[in-house]
Amino acid sequence: MANVTVIGAQWGDEGKGKLVDWLSNRADVVVRFQGGHNAGHTLVVDGKVYKLSLLPSGVVQGKLSIVGNGVVIDPWALFDEIARVEALGLSITPDLLVIADNACLILPIHSELDIAREAAAGAGKIGTTGRGIGPAYEDKVGRRAIRVADLADLDALDAKIERLLAHHNALRAGLGLEPVDVAALTEKLKAVAPRLLPFIKPVWYVLDKAKSEGKRILFEGAQGALLDIDHGTYPFVTSSNTVAGQAAAGSGMGPKSVGYVLGILKAYTTRVGSGPFPTELFDEIGQGIATRGHEFGTVTGRARRVGWLDAVLARQSIAINGIDGIALTKLDILDGIETIKVCVGYKVGDKVLDYLPASFKDQQGIEPVYEELEGWSESTQGARSWKDLPGNAVKYVRRIEELIGAPVALLSTSPEREDTILMRDPFQD
User: Fold this and answer.
1) Which of 45, 48, 350, 428 is least surrounded by CB atoms within 10 angstroms?
2) DSSP letter string over 370-423?
3) Rounded to an integer, what is the distance from CA 347 to the centroid of its chain?
4) Mean pLDDT computed over every residue of the chain
5) Does an H or E element contain 73, and which?
6) What is the CATH number of domain 265-422?
7) Is 13 a catalytic residue?
8) What pLDDT is stored for residue 17 in this prediction?
9) Which ranges in 87-227 belong to alpha helices (H)?
10) Fold entry, domain 104-196
């Protein structure tokens, strides 16, 4: 049996949570490998709604769930999240949840800086969630971050905080913020340490052992490939690599361990926050899709922008992630639309491109080239086999496969776990 890496193939919010939960049935270990608590997965299981941010989706299935070194961790947000899911009946113990000892921490100063800089940016805002993820990654690459393992050596913590604040207090002064209260920050870290330390282990070691035992590992991506710091719509991106290759670096496993790459693709397109969106809709059709699809961010509650499926971006995402197959979600939201459009090219000036240009100016000037497909009036909601789908819905799926150059391995027709049509088991070699 192969490992599987689940990647959002658009700007996030594609329905990864449900698919990861569904695939967890076939996995032994579930791993988060990038991002922070700025991303969220919603799982609906037996009528209970679980909204997860830092916790891997495997916790709902009772599978070994690992937060890798590529994740930045706000320990206070983590324990708030643990409290919420335990109120729904789950038990989060160190036997179930493992946190990488070499992961970096998000501190209160990071969110303060995040919010202050976004406010100072004026028209240059990029739509950050204000949760401190970007500043935490900056400290990581600046080699001044406080890491999870540092909480086990409280005697050395003062010197590490001093190094960190030499940077932060200078930034804060420029933004009109008061210097950091060193004593208060130190006390917060010392107070949270005994709660966090029972969960920490060398994750690379745990995963290497799981690999040697033939365990099936599911790597769970957050956000989407088009928010990747290198490959996304820069600067309107997140602060980490969200592509499949990060599963190796963000967990401590080699690149061969990534396994089958499953890209999650919504049957239309959404994004939260600012940035280019070639197929965005501003009409009644877009409003209808947003309403039926409940298009609001799991973490932020922000309304998602809605548009037609963009096959150009989907092809690009498939290429940069090495996607083997697609899980197509929310097909049912398109029920009742008479004519459905799919973007098949970009007109930029006098050129027609089959890829997204890197230049922000070119991205802003894109005019989408559409192909029109006949819609369907019948319901696809809850369908669990091909024969349950209207003919035009099947034609739509097959045409998407042709346009993006990848097969649809799974088809999701509702938020419920079992409303999934399986064409290929990603875990099957």
Assistant:
1) 350
2) EEEEE---S--TT--SGGGS-HHHHHHHHHHHHHHTS-EEEEE-SSBTT-EEES
3) 29
4) 92
5) strand 72-73
6) 3.90.170.10
7) yes
8) 76
9) 108-120, 133-141, 157-174, 182-196, 203-212
10) Adenylosuccinate Synthetase, subunit A; domain 2 (1.10.300)
Q: How far is CA 371 from CA 66, 299, 309, 403, in A?
A: 42, 34, 10, 10
Which among 41, 110, 168, 231 is annotated as catalytic?
41
Return d(Cα 165, Cα 63) in angstroms, integer: 39
Q: 147 pairs with which residues across the strands?
A: 104
Residue 168: the pLDDT is: 95
Alpha-carbon distance of 91 to 66, in angstroms, equals 15
Burial 385-424, CB ≥16 within 10 A → b, else e:
eeeebbebbeebbeebeebbebebbbbbbbbbbebbbeee
User: Of 13, 21, 114, 332, which is the active-site residue?
Assistant: 13
- Does residue 110 carry a catalytic annotation? no
- Where does CATH 1.10.300.10 sit in the chain? 104-196
- pLDDT band of 297, cuts 50, 70, 90: low
Q: Rounded CA gap, 356 and 269, in Å?
A: 15
Alpha-carbon Rg for the chain, nearest whole angstrom, is 22
Environment class of 118 (CB within 10 Å of its CB; exposed 0-12, middle 13-18, buried 19+): middle
Domain with CATH 3.40.440.10 in the chain: 4-101+200-258
pLDDT at 130: 79
Residues of the chain within CATH 3.90.170.10 domain(s) are 265-422
Comparing CA positions, the residue from 265, 247, 266 lying closest to residue 257 is 247
135 token code pair = 């500043």
The predicted model gives 123-135 an average pLDDT of: 78
335-388: pLDDT as tens digits: 999 999 999 999 999 999 999 999 888 988 899 999 999 999 999 998 888 889
Distance, CA of 395 to chain centre:
29
Question: Confidence band (pLDDT; 50, 70, 90) for 169?
Answer: very high
* The pLDDT value given to residue 298: 61
Residue 51 confidence (pLDDT): 86
